[in-house]
Amino acid sequence: MTNNDIFKKLRVAHKLRDEDIVNIMKLVDFRISKSELNAMFRREDHPKYMECGDQILRNFLNALIIHLRGPMPKKGEKKQPKKKSND
């Protein structure tokens, strides 16, 4: 299984659009364009196919964790409990 396959499966599993992925990648200060993403999601035999490198996948995974869980608290800080709304 290639990095591209993993990236595609995560995209589908989390129902992410290109814009969502671009914004998620910004959480770890990694800039990627929609056209670069589309190139990674193409079939391998397509002329504009681009291989997803380890750095891109690593940054996406780290950003996805922040997106889903929130930023990691700094040492010495306690995580703030979520407030319940009384609506």
Write the layout of secondary structure elements.
Blueprint: H1 3-13, H2 18-26, H3 34-40, H4 54-69
Helix pairs in contact: 2-4
Description of the structure:
The chain is an all-alpha fold and 87 residues long. The protein has one domain. It has 4 helices and no strands. α2 (18-26) crosses α4. The longest helix is centred in the C-terminal third of the chain and has 16 residues, at 54-69. The radius of gyration is 16 Å and the shape is elongated. The chain starts with a helix and ends in an 18-residue tail after the last helix. The mean pLDDT is 89.
- Average per-residue pLDDT, rounded, comes to 89
Judging from the principal axes of the Cα atoms, what is the shape?
elongated
Oligomeric state of the chains present here: single chain
Strand content: under 5%
Query: How many DSSP helices?
Result: 4
Q: Estimate percent helicity.
A: 40-55%
Biggest sheet details: none
What's the gyration radius in Å? 16 Å
Compute the number of structural domains.
1
Low-confidence stretches: none
Derived structural class: mainly alpha
End-to-end C-alpha gap = 47 Å
Note the run of SSEs as H and E. HHHH
Number of E-type strands: 0
Descriptors:
single chain, 87 residues, mainly alpha, elongated
Provide a quick synopsis of the model.
With 87 residues, the chain is an all-alpha fold. It has one domain. 49% of the residues lie in helices and 0% in strands.
